[in-house]
Amino acid sequence: MKKITVFILLTGCLLWWPFAGSSQTYPYTTVTLSTSEQYQTITGFGASLAFYEGWLTAHPKKSEIYDVIFKELSLDILRVRNAYGYDNTMVGRVKEFNQAAKTSLGKPIDIMVTSWGPPAYLKSNNSQSNGGTLKYTVSGGKVNFQYAEFARWWNQSLDNYNANGIYPTYVSIQNEPDFLATYESCLLKPSETVSATDTIAGYNKALDAVYDTLQLRSKIPLLLGPECVGIGYNNVENYVNALNTSKLYGIAHHLYHGTNETDPFVSTDFAKVGGFKPQIPHFQTEYSRGDWFPLAGMLYKSFNDENAVAYLFWDLIWDNGGLVDLDFPWDSNRWSNPKGYTRNKHYFVFKQFSAWVHPGWKRIKVSTPSIMVKTLAFISADKDSATFIAINTSATNTYPVKVTIPGFNIDQSVTTRTSA
Questions:
Q1: Which residues contact 292 (CB under 8 A, 6 or more apart)?
Q2: If the chain, 420 residues long, is cut into consecutive pieces of 10 residues, what is the mean pLDDT of each piece?
Q3: Which of 173, 231, 313, 388 is within CB 3.0–4.6 Å of 273 for a Cys-Cys bond?
Q4: Sign of the CA dihedral 329, 330, 336, 337?
Q5: Residue by residue, what is the 3-state secondary structure of the chain?
Q6: Contact at 8 Å (CB) between 62 and 104?
Q7: Given this model, what pLDDT does residue 22 score?
Q8: What is the pLDDT of residue 368?
Q9: How far is 110 from 115, CA to CA, in rounded Å?
Q10: Are 309 and 41 in contact (CB under 8 A)?
């Protein structure tokens, strides 16, 4: 029998060990990890460095923080903003992040570049902010949107990244095209909408233009999209159904609707969107609402119900939030922590997944000891390591378990536990 190392990760309010009070401890249950039944192959875990980039590059403790966010979390994907043409200092900060990640991890990190909105000269409202759509002209009663100009801007952006030693793995042409935001944004409908009340460019034609333009590059990034606000209202389906899906590497979305933010386990839209074009990899590329424990549920539902291959948290570092809460870098007298930063509770929940499940690992079948305990299991490509994740959704009861993997002897195990 082959030897295997098992990482056992436990998350919950009361989990596995008796506590004082009215809790009940159940008899031991054997949990079986079935390596013969395999599901999706994991691409990785990531987060965004967006809108507080300058806080991090200016922070006197940034070398230490880089190890906290990259090495300790074992981060695989870093999502950054495309600000080419209106913030030309951005590429320098992304260059620093890219190098810092490589130094901390000992290997390159995959970069995902997302546009929150193109420069004002490409916008119908002549503003980077407040929605608008791609600029257009009207000739002979026909509306002509500037898709080619938008694609040219993307191509020039990647030239700029490449000149700074950055070769993004993934590109998303527009963040949340279905959301009218007061900050950097650009509305794109699934397909062109021209009516008495709306004149809005089509996401499908914008994607075609960018894809076709990027095919001439020596290193071609993979396109993810449409990065809708959430998985409710059939938004993801409506956008993807209007696309030429051969040009889309992965279906990407956020989780700001279609989920229950206090109890994700009751949400049904994860399974619904997971059953939509399952042959295309699904990426969850932004989410950060809710308390620490529901985050475990969002991760569980994404991998178990949707069969997602990647999960990205929104704010990797932030002021008064994020996985890491960053104190004001320019005045240590204002720091709430002597280090100038604090790992939040969400950090440790996210780490339960990101630090122990790696690219190329496969999700495998695992039996569940109780309907109150949600479980996931993953195995490495060479089958010498496995990770078992258990989430106790009961606020009172303890469920002891024993883990077995048929066909393997467990050579060693490591257990980590996260609680309030």
A1: 344, 345, 346, 348, 349, 420
A2: 84 47 78 96 97 96 98 98 96 98 98 97 96 96 96 98 98 98 97 94 98 97 98 98 98 98 96 98 96 96 98 96 96 96 97 97 90 94 95 89 92 90
A3: 231
A4: positive
A5: CEEEEEEEEEEECCCCCCCCCCCCECCCEEEEEEEEEEEEECCEEEEECCCCHHHHHHCCCHHHHHHHHHHCCCCCEEEEECCCCCCCCHHHHHHHHHHHHHHHHCCCCEEEEECCCCCHHHECCCCCECCCCECEEEECCEEEECHHHHHHHHHHHHHHHHHCCCCCCEEECCCCCCCCCCCECCCCECCCEECCCCEECEHHHHHHHHHHHHCCCCCCCEEEEEEECCCCCCHHHHHHHCCCHHHCCEEEEECCCCCCCCCHHHCCHHHHHHCCCCCCCEEEEECCCCCHHHHHHHHHHHHHCCCCCEEEEEECEECCECCEEECCCCCHHHCCCCCCEEECHHHHHHHHHHCCCCCCCEEEEECCCCCCEEEEEEECCCCCEEEEEEEECCCCCECCEEEECCCEEEEEEEEEEECC
A6: no
A7: 58
A8: 79
A9: 17
A10: yes
Q: Kindly state the tokens that stand for 2.
A: 């082959």
Which residue carries 């209007």 as its tokens?
Answer: 242
Are the C-beta atoms of residues 56 and 326 closer than 8 Å to each other?
Answer: yes
> Tokens 């500037």 correspond to what residue?
146
pLDDT score recorded for residue 316: 98
**What is the Cα–Cα distance from 327 to 314, expressed in whole angstroms?**
18
Alpha-carbon Rg for the chain in angstroms: 22
User: Given the DSSP bridges, would you call strands 250-254 and 282-286 parallel, antiparallel or unpaired?
Assistant: parallel
pLDDT at 341: 98
What token pair was written down for 360? Answer: 């190329």
